[in-house]
Amino acid sequence: MNFRLLGLVALLALASGAASARGMVWQVSDADNTVYLAGSVHLLPPSAYPLPEAFERAYENAAIVAFETDIGELQSSATQTRLFQAARYPDGTGLEDHLDDALYARVAELLDEMGQSVSALRSFRPWFIAGMIEVQAFMAEDFRQDLGLDTHFHERAVDDDKAILPLETLDRHLAVLTKMPADMARDYLAATVDNVAALTDAPAAVFDFWREGDAAGLAAYVEEQIDDTPALYERLLFSRNDDWMEHIEALLAGSDDAMVLVGTLHLVGEHGLIEQLRSAGHRLERVE
């Protein structure tokens, strides 16, 4: 399994018709160029295409396409091997040694319901188990990483010989999970198990927010999750947004139009990139 990072599986959803789709795309311009901010989903079903026109317009106008990290390197077999190695406990201990009995029992029961065996997965860390539970729930609904927006636009950018910019190094990208503190990783797994029932209901609702470009609705929809685990979202989203602002400002200071494609949750809400750019004095407009 190609274990993709961040942008959160909660943003994956069942696709509907494209006719009235608006999409999550904004633009900010200065005297000599435009930077487009586009909200990505990392897995999609085949029926998600064609994309809302706003994405196509942003891509066609961009000479530079920026992604969260180096997508080609992230998807390489070497990186996947490295990630799986980091996901395993190196000292012979297992999941049961790092969770309390109640949480371990809940994880074991859920994995059994999914056709998995906790004994076969006991060597993996909690953050990996949490991500696997989320991803498999959506893969069961025909969501595929090869159809995600990152892969889609990265392949096109390579074919079209556009300049490609990673917003963070691969090491930084992987460390968001691989260097996650143990207590936070346990909280992540516990929250995933607690909310697993919602995985069957959330996709269609969240997809509608994304497809129709309802940033306020999406931000409100996930606010409760952020309130429940604020430190986790600080790590997954907010601190990275702060780091990426430097790169976005540099793109604005340049002369080439650029498309910045990041997980949609990085854009919306009071800590999102859109609000940060507005606070920095930039005027943003929706791309229709």
UniProtKB/TrEMBL annotation:
Keyword terms of this UniProt record: Signal
Signal sequence interval, chain numbering: 1-21
CDD domains, per database record: Tiki
Pfam families given in the database record: TraB_PrgY_gumN
PANTHER family membership: CYTOPLASMIC PROTEIN, CYTOPLASMIC PROTEIN-RELATED
Name assigned to this protein: TraB/GumN family protein
Annotated organism of origin: Spectribacter hydrogenoxidans
